[in-house]
């Protein structure tokens, strides 16, 4: 028993479990399940008594040798456990997007507008942690930012409810959002959260739905949600829900800076002031082709919602004008994303100095970013901290 106790003191685990003794060594198959649940396993020992001529034998004591014969058996057990063990926790990156150009092409009979836009995912995003809940009736949502609705008004809860409705899943979740993307910014942060929640729910349920089904269902939550099931770069039409994957037409190392004042633009108010008869007449497919051939430039970054957004928020127009002037040509293009109120400067990650110097801009949200995409059948991966940095983390998150 003393020998067994001494042997037990050598047990440890790190990305697997390794047991070391005088004459034997066992390494269990590396597995995330083993790493998290190694305490649940019992090792089976074969105890042999040895009668070798050593001091212990001469003194009337038997030497006990512990023989482990587990490799094959435990490897089979590992395979079986990993196949049958359900997912209990998942942490995912929820990136936002910008509209490199946004053309409004028509007003529909249902009151919505048809658009044609190059959507692209960027490296600024939220972190969302999902855990299975013991509840069979309610999801629980929390966040690091005050003012965010935590009930059915939140697109994450809408997405989880939609997934259960479509698949019959009975799984409910505890969800925590570490919010980095400001709301009311034209960056699709809420839509990305909804898409990420659908993806997560599907993982917890053993992928009952295909990616195409998730994309189709997500249009019931909001027009921008289906885009996030693309590869990260897409030409979007209709209300935004018609998504055509394209190879990214821009380099991933192209820097940009996001500049958002604390004031948000109401999408409804912006569209209410939009006038089709005075909007751009540029062919969106021609814009896409030009970007693919020559990259981003000011003449292709057309956003038809800028004029009405500047009516809603006149200070936003002044902000854009000042960024263009202060940039002195260091930005390839300066434009508004979505319905605002984020101004994007592509070509440099450096904000203009006046944003730091003047009291009027002390609450502006600033972040550098890059373009990113995702690999098929995998969700978006959080970039290294060197690629995405929030310069000013102020109060631009209120719903």
TrEMBL record:
Q: What is its EC number?
A: 2.7.1.148
- Which top EC class applies here? transferase
Main location (coarse class): plastid
Where does this protein reside within or beyond the cell?
Plastid, Chloroplast
- Cross-referenced SUPFAM superfamilies: GHMP Kinase, C-terminal domain (SSF55060), Ribosomal protein S5 domain 2-like (SSF54211)
Give every GHMP kinase N-terminal domain span: 154-231
Question: Per the UniProt entry, what are the Gene Ontology biological process annotations, in alphabetical order?
Answer: terpenoid biosynthetic process
Q: In which pathway does it act?
A: Isoprenoid biosynthesis; isopentenyl diphosphate biosynthesis via DXP pathway; isopentenyl diphosphate from 1-deoxy-D-xylulose 5-phosphate: step 3/6
GO CC, alphabetical: chloroplast
Q: Which keywords fit this entry according to its UniProt record?
A: ATP-binding, Chloroplast, Isoprene biosynthesis, Kinase, Nucleotide-binding, Plastid, Transferase, Transit peptide
Membrane-crossing segments per the record: none
| Recorded catalytic activity of this chain's protein | 4-CDP-2-C-methyl-D-erythritol + ATP = 4-CDP-2-C-methyl-D-erythritol 2-phosphate + ADP + H(+)
A Gene Ontology molecular function term for this protein is:
4-(cytidine 5'-diphospho)-2-C-methyl-D-erythritol kinase activity
- Give the family, as the similarity comment puts it: Belongs to the GHMP kinase family. IspE subfamily.
NCBIfam families in the record: ispE (TIGR00154)
Q: What's the stated role of this polypeptide?
A: Catalyzes the phosphorylation of the position 2 hydroxy group of 4-diphosphocytidyl-2C-methyl-D-erythritol.
Q: What is this protein called?
A: 4-(cytidine 5'-diphospho)-2-C-methyl-D-erythritol kinase
Q: Which organism is it from?
A: Artemisia annua
């Amino acid at each position: 028993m003393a020998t067994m106790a001494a042997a037990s003191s050598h047990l440890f685990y790190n990305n697997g479990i390794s047991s070391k003794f005088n004459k034997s060594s066992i390494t269990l198959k590396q597995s995330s399940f083993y790493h998290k649940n190694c305490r649940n396993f019992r090792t089976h020992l074969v105890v042999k008594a040895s009668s070798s001529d050593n001091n212990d034998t001469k003194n009337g004591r038997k030497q006990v040798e512990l023989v482990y014969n587990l490799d094959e058996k435990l490897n089979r057990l590992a395979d079986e456990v990993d196949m049958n063990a359900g997912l209990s926790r998942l942490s995912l990156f929820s990136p936002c997007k910008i509209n490199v150009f946004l053309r409004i092409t028509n007003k529909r009979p249902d009151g919505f507008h048809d658009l044609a836009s190059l959507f692209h995912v960027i490296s600024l995003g939220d972190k969302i942690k999902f855990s299975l809940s013991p509840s069979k009736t309610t999801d629980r949502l929390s966040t690091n930012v005050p003012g965010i609705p935590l009930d059915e008004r939140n697109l994450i809860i809408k997405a989880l409810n939609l997934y259960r409705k479509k698949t019959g899943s009975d799984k409910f979740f505890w969800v925590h959002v570490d919010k980095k993307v400001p709301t009311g910014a034209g960056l699709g942060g809420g839509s990305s959260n909804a898409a990420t929640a659908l993806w997560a729910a599907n993982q917890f349920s053993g992928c009952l739905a295909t990616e195409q089904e998730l994309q189709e269902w997500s249009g019931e939550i909001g027009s921008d949600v289906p885009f996030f099931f693309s590869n990260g770069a897409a030409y979007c039409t209709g209300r935004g829900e018609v998504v055509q994957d394209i190879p990214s037409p821009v380099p991933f190392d192209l820097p940009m800076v996001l500049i958002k004042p604390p004031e948000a633009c109401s999408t409804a108010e912006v569209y209410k002031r939009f006038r089709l008869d005075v909007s751009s007449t540029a062919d969106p497919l021609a814009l896409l082709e030009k970007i693919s051939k020559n990259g981003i430039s000011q003449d292709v970054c057309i956003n038809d919602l800028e004029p009405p957004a500047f009516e809603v928020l006149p200070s936003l127009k002044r902000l854009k004008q000042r960024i263009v002037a202060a940039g002195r040509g260091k930005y390839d293009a300066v434009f508004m994303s979505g319905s605002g109120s984020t101004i994007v400067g592509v070509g440099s990650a450096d904000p203009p100095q006046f944003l730091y110097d003047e009291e009027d801009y002390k609450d502006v949200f600033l972040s550098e970013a890059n373009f990113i995409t995702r690999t098929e059948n995998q969700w978006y991966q959080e970039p290294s901290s060197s690629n995405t940095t929030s310069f000013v983390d102020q109060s631009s998150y209120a719903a």
